[in-house]
Amino acid sequence: MITQVKHYIDGEFTHGSGERNIDVTNPANNSVIAKINCATTAEVELAIHSAKEAFKTWKEVPVSERARVMLRYQHLLKEHHDELATILAQETGKTFEDAKGDVWRGIEVAEHACNVASLMMGETVENVARNIDTYSYTQPLGVCAGITPFNFPAMIPLWMFPLSIACGNTFILKPSEQDPMTPQRLVELFVEAGAPKGVLQLIHGDKTAVDMLLTDPAIKAISFVGSVGVGQYIYKTGTDNLKRVQAFAGAKNHCVIMPDANKQQVINNMVGASVGAAGQRCMAISVAVFVGKAKEWIPELKEALAKVRPGLWNDKDAAYGPVISPAAKARVLKLIAQGKAEGAECLLDGSDFTVAGYESGNWVGPTMFTNVTTDMSIYKEEIFGPVLCCMEAETLDDAIELVNNSPYGNGTSIFTASGGAARKYQHEIEVGQVGINVPIPVPLPFFSFTGWKGSFYGDQHAYGKQAVRFCTETKTITTRWFDSEAVSGPNMSINLK
């Protein structure tokens, strides 16, 4: 059965009237499981107008009432957790356990949005001058929009719209066309939680819809997660149209392995961090830097990776699923071939991996290179597949220099038993998110997701306090009240005693 994906525009779910159609396929065998009618220009305009009109009343709803909507929403998300994970797994190919993690990390942000009253508190100083007080309010911006990627169809939309809406904004969500059914279900549950008409809109489509969001003056802020090229386009186009933009782009995350680290912990963590989710994570560890004698562990890491087997979403023994599309697989295989041609040693090659009965799926087995240098394509480009590049460094200083020379700065980690080495690394490394004996240091929602350098374009990051600042504006008021002698007069005497 093929599902017809729905938009949610002006308080109504609709299949849309667009003439351009997009097939949604199952990555395990590339069969069509759903169809999208891309939103028309008129439908996008209606979504923007509806969100703009809804903002006039939603911004006046008391913050405690907005928080109650979020409380109901996070409860519904938890109640439907496994249902959401099943939808997500079937359209992304993720294993069920991985899909559940995707949903749960989104739920954590929705939970954080329930604290919106304290997050929006302003500041006050009494007597900044004689009889003059100054205080600030935090107020919503207006209509915000989110453009989200395929690899986390639950978590990343939930990074964006719950907190923005809780702050008093209205929101337009444009998810990836490759896995739109999970975002649709998120929106259905949000409506069930009691969100008023127009507060949230859902539009499906292509670059035409994106460009309308980037250029329409009613949209005040844009959030994006995706590839480097698209992230740069989103940031430049949005800011050229005088919008706030936060654009999370590519990554090349390094894990530095010191010889005093716990070898088995390193190997166990590196396997999951490098090929988990088929490597389709902007925080995946794609480069392992072995310092000194730690390089002697490379053969054992290869043995551990060789035991990893991809499979179907409901295969409990599968470590990860297929990559999202034939185009994604072709790109990964091209980079693997380039790595070999450029002189890297391919210790483990997953190029020809298949799953019995699903040979037409987008499968790539775990792949591992050594003798990788910084001028190779497999090092310079974000592969976004289950491929690990192993490099060597003589000292910690050499490893730090290597990581800091990378144009990306999303995440990094170090495995060591030395507090001194860990302290040096966290202080000197030019990366926004650092793990110490933690391979993928994604912060919980009361912090913010803080990529640096070419991994992020903007000022304020996703979720946490920075997200509140991104989607609100500060109003500062300075007041002076005169005493009774200054204001007294006919019929105006005030008894202040």
UniProtKB/TrEMBL annotation:
Its EC number is 1.2.1.27. CDD domains: ALDH_F6_MMSDH. It holds the Pfam family Aldedh. Keywords: NAD, Oxidoreductase. It comes from the Bacteria. Residues 15-477 form the Aldehyde dehydrogenase domain. InterPro entries: Ald_DH/histidinol_DH, Ald_DH_C, Ald_DH_CS_CYS, Ald_DH_N, Aldehyde_DH_dom, MeMal-semiAld_DH. It is an enzyme of class 1 (oxidoreductase). PROSITE patterns: ALDEHYDE_DEHYDR_CYS. Belongs to the aldehyde dehydrogenase family. This is methylmalonate-semialdehyde dehydrogenase (CoA acylating). The gene is ivdB.
